């Protein structure tokens, strides 16, 4: 009775299934379990699992996978488990680092005040209120240049 409902995969279907990339939402451990189940269902070799992990990984992690890959090993499943655990640990560390980095950046606030207008968030150099000529505690005298033959010259700042 089980044989009457058994699914048989053709070679083309097997190749197509093993040539799919890992989904970004799926963890590497889940992807390895999926590949093992697919290998058992299609009755194909374990080398297809290793080939899928190395060739069809996301571009961000493919260089790391290739650096860990040893093509001369014959224990394909054990080697695949080692690579998957290595990449999963790196991704977990990276996600934790990005979360902590964002928390640190968000917790810092700018407490510097502008010497010109007294508002928090910018300094006198970038203040839009230019009524007070004092910038950063130093008084600057503006000397206007004469215009020569209708050309406008910018004022020269003397300290």
Notes on the structure:
The chain is mainly alpha-helical and 159 residues long. It has 2 domains: 3-107; 132-158, no CATH class. Helix content is 47%, strand content 6%. It has helices spanning 11-18, 28-42, 47-55, 59-68, 76-107, and strands spanning 134-135, 138-139, 141-143, 156-158. A two-stranded antiparallel sheet has the order 1-2. Strands 3-4 form a two-stranded antiparallel ribbon. Strand 1 and strand 2 (138-139) form a beta hairpin. Helix 2 (28-42) runs antiparallel to helix 3 (47-55). It starts with 10 loop residues before the first helix and ends with a strand.
- Summarize the helix and strand pattern as letters: HHHHHEEEE
Bin the helical content.
40-55%
Overall average residue pLDDT: 76
Question: What is the β-strand count?
Answer: 4
Distance between the termini: 97 Å
| SS element count, helices | 5
Main beta sheet: 2 strands, antiparallel
Main sheet strand line-up: 1-2
The structural class is mainly alpha
β-sheet strand percentage: 5-15%
- Given as residue ranges, the uncertain stretches (5+ residues, pLDDT < 50) are 135-146
The domain tally reads: 2
As a whole number of angstroms, the C-alpha radius of gyration is: 32 Å
Give the CA-based shape: elongated
